[in-house]
Amino acid sequence: MNKKLDTKKLVLLGLLTALVVVLTYFNIPIGPLSISMTVIPVAIAAIALGPVGGAVIGAVWGVCSFLQCFGILGTSGMGVFTLQISPVLTFLQRFIPRVLEGFLAGCFFRFMARTTHPKPSCFITGFLTALMNTIFFMSALVILFGNNQEFVDTYMQGKSAIAYIISAISINAILEMVAATIVAGAVGFALCQAKLISVPDKKKKSETAAAV
Fold first, then answer.
1. What is the pTM assigned to this prediction?
2. What total of structural domains would you count in the chain?
3. Domain contains 205
4. Cα separation of 167 and 22, whole Å?
5. How many CB atoms within 10 Å of residue 50?
6. What is the mean pLDDT of residues 105-130?
7. Which of 45, 124, 148, 149 is most buried, most CB within 10 Å of its CB?
């Protein structure tokens, strides 16, 4: 049983990795940023594979996002710009937020699944994954490059950090959150219903607590 479960997890991990690569290439550019559906497989990984799986798929997305700064898997205009300022900071800005959001989304789903029904847990996890991606990515961008005058003049245009983040992500963030909530939530719940993934059993937890 454990071997079958491990095989399912490896297959799902492989499929989600391939999906990340494909979706990274098909980002929809809007101004300096882009609408990315790549957050969806990260959310699905968090639901199906837990914090570690979410972090792994988040890491894959982070690497793919960094490669876009070199014109691989598409091109990120902002990534090309920040790469000229600092390759190391650019990597950190694109990698760490994606790993962190995948890990935290997995933790959240595990917690929610133990306290409520899996269906709302899946949809809420999809929404929160996209929300964390927006907050972490843009916060890292401002923290790591907000002191660079060239970046401030070109992108922030004299705005405060909060004003810049709000103005830059409004359309992108809303569309990503809607898509992640619907798609990741539906796929995650379908996997739960089909018993293709294991979900923490709140009943067992309740019975254990009662016995103690």
1. 0.85
2. 1
3. no
4. 28
5. 21
6. 90
7. 45
